[in-house]
Write a structure and sequence with these properties.
- By secondary structure, this protein is α+β, with helices and mostly antiparallel strands.
- It is about 50% helix and about 10% strand.
- A hairpin with a 2-residue loop joins strand 10 (about 485-490) and strand 11.
- Helix 10 (about 275-290) packs antiparallel against helix 11 and helix 15 crosses helix 17.
- The chain is rod-shaped, with a radius of gyration of 61 Å.
């Protein structure tokens, strides 16, 4: 229990004590409305008013009730119900409570803020003096009541009826207009209706129905707004998705174009010039670097122009006599070799300034053609020909396309090779040889056939191509078979023979156009070292590309066979192993 240090009031908790201090001793200073007595607590003031000013207090309550009814009806007709309720409620309160409300109203200033007053120095002795003048105040109240009654008689704001006494008016309101009061009478049997949505209590079913309809309209409006918002969200999501798809397609298109440009540049289709332009640029670069004398530049340029004019290779990069040198070497050395089979005579052609990086296919065709030109069996189809230069080979392939060979390959290269650095492969070599009536076919080793990505089936096929009978044959055999064109991803070479070692392993002998002529010429020496053959020898473990294609020459085509193969090349097919 807590006791107030000012008035001695006892409360049960600290919050109650704070409320007591705020209400009794800070906000509401208790002052007598009749004689201005102050400095006493609320209970003492109630006792003072009931004993010293009973008649004044009763008259004041009547005035306040009447004024409330009068002002409520004159201000606004719509507020009649509310004003009447205020009047009836005020009549129910006790005299002490009514006085307390009046005191609180007097404490409010015009601007709405509370205003504190200083304690009055008067004490309870003054109230005793006022008790003696009770008769005087009673006479004053009678005069005041009679004057008021002659001036104004209260009427009802609900029905217009007039009563002489406020008590009769209160009784009339409670009995006739009880439905307008905030709290229904205890003996009223009017049913109450609870709103199923918010719990509001209504005294009329129609009012409840209108109230519930408002809830439903609000819910429907909220659902419509949700649908509108959902539709907007879906539209926004759709727009964002479309923007994302557009950016993705744009990025994919840009990446594809970049990759396509790289492929064009890699395969010589970027319109940067062909053999002639590259040859001249590289020679100029050599002159600028001091590696070539200007006079040498002009001499080579003149030879280039002459070679291009006649369409014949100038032979600057050709190395001849290697097959003969290999035959001598295997006869006198190579004790670890059991058998070796060599192709017909073939010249090695090295890539030059004009085709470095893209001309391997053309150089391998020159090697193959150099062997066929030295074989009398092909004089009928190659009569009067010489090894052509690279631009001339490009022109010959274009002529084969015009005859109708390999239309798909022609379309992929835009039907144009001259003036470009376009790569060629096994299909273009086959097309050119077939147009010259050279009988050949393509074998596709499309996947590895051995461990670790090797192609032992390729080695076996080449061995069978060069030798049909191995037992009882001499150690070195110069066959009548032309060299084989070998193609894999990014490069091509020429197979000129195959070794069979004493441990039964196989080794290919390969001419690579990327090998410099200076290295190839070392094989022409009388005392060839075994290390010089290292650049020619390729074992099974050295060929590990995913796919290999070879073009093998088999003889000469008749004119009818040439026409048949031209028709067959409309849909290009190759023999696949395995």
């Amino acid at each position: 229990m807590l006791s107030c240090d000012i008035c001695g009031e006892t409360v049960t908790s600290e919050p109650d004590m704070k409320a007591h201090l705020l209400i009794v001793h800070m906000e509401n200073e208790v002052i007598c409305p009749f004689c201005k007595l102050s400095g006493v607590n609320y209970d003492e003031m109630c006792f003072h008013i009931e004993t010293a000013h009973f008649e004044q207090n009763e008259l004041e309550r009547t005035f306040e009730r009447i004024n409330t009814i009068q002002y409520g009806t004159s201000d606004n007709a719509k507020d009649n119900t509310l004003q009447c309720r205020m009047e009836v409620d005020s009549s129910i309160h006790s005299a002490c409570a009514s006085t307390h409300l009046k005191i609180s109203a007097q404490c409010l200033p015009k601007d709405g803020t509370l205003k504190q007053r200083a304690f009055n120095s008067e004490n309870l002795t003054e109230s005793r003096k006022l008790l003696k003048s009770k008769e005087k105040h009673r006479d004053l109240s009678k005069i005041k009541g009679s004057v008021y009654q002659t001036v104004y008689l209260p009427n009802y704001p609900f029905c217009g009826k007039t009563e002489d006494c406020s008590q009769d008016m209160e009784t009339h309101v409670r009995t006739k207009h009880t439905n307008l009061l905030d709290t229904p009478l205890g003996d009223c049997d009017q049913p109450l209706y609870d709103c199923p949505i918010c719990g509001l209590i209504c005294t009329n079913y129609h009012i409840l129905q209108e109230h519930v309809d408002l809830h439903l309209e609000e819910s429907s409006f909220g659902q419509d707004m949700d649908r509108v918002q959902c539709s907007r969200d879906l539209e926004l999501a759709h727009q964002l998705q479309q923007e994302e798809d557009r950016k993705r397609r744009s990025e994919e298109s840009r990446r594809e174009m970049e990759e396509f440009r790289k492929l064009q540049q890699q395969y010589g289709l970027d319109n940067s010039g062909g053999y002639k332009q590259q040859q001249l640029r590289n020679m100029e670069r050599e002159v600028n670097r001091g590696r070539m004398h200007p006079s040498e530049f002009h001499r080579r340029k003149a030879d280039l122009m002459e070679s291009l004019a006649v369409g014949i290779d100038d032979g600057k990069t050709k190395t001849s006599g290697i097959i003969e040198a290999l035959y001598r070497y295997y006869q006198n050395a190579a004790t670890d070799v059991r058998h070796v089979w060599l192709s017909t005579v073939v010249d090695h052609f090295q890539s030059s300034f004009g085709d470095k990086g893209w001309g391997c296919g053309y150089r391998n065709f020159q090697m193959l053609l150099s062997s066929l030109l030295q074989d009398g069996a092909y004089d009928d189809c190659l009569k009067g020909m010489s090894v052509p230069c690279i631009p001339r080979i490009q022109s010959m392939i274009e002529d084969a396309w015009k005859e109708g060979f390999d239309p798909q390959g022609a379309s992929q290269l835009n039907h144009k090779l001259q003036g470009t650095k376009a790569w060629i492969g096994a299909c273009e070599v086959y097309t050119l040889l077939t147009s010259l009536r050279v009988k050949c076919h393509i074998i596709d080793f499309h996947k590895p056939t051995g461990p670790l990505g090797t192609h032992p089936r390729l080695f076996e096929w080449i061995l069978n191509y060069y030798s049909s009978e191995r037992d009882g044959s001499p150690k070195v055999v110069c066959t009548s078979k032309p060299p084989i064109y070998l193609q894999h991803q990014g490069h091509s070479r020429t197979i000129v023979g195959i070794e069979e070692r004493k441990n039964r392993t196989l080794c290919l002998l390969i001419f690579d156009p990327g090998c410099p002529s200076q290295e190839m010429q070392k094989l022409l020496k009388q005392d060839v070292e075994a290390s010089s053959l290292k650049q020619l020898r390729k074992f099974v473990g050295n060929l590990k590309h995913k796919q290999y294609q070879i073009v093998a020459v088999e003889g000469v085509l008749t004119p009818e066979e040439k026409v048949a193969r031209r028709q067959a090349s409309q849909v290009f097919t190759a023999e696949k192993i395995p």
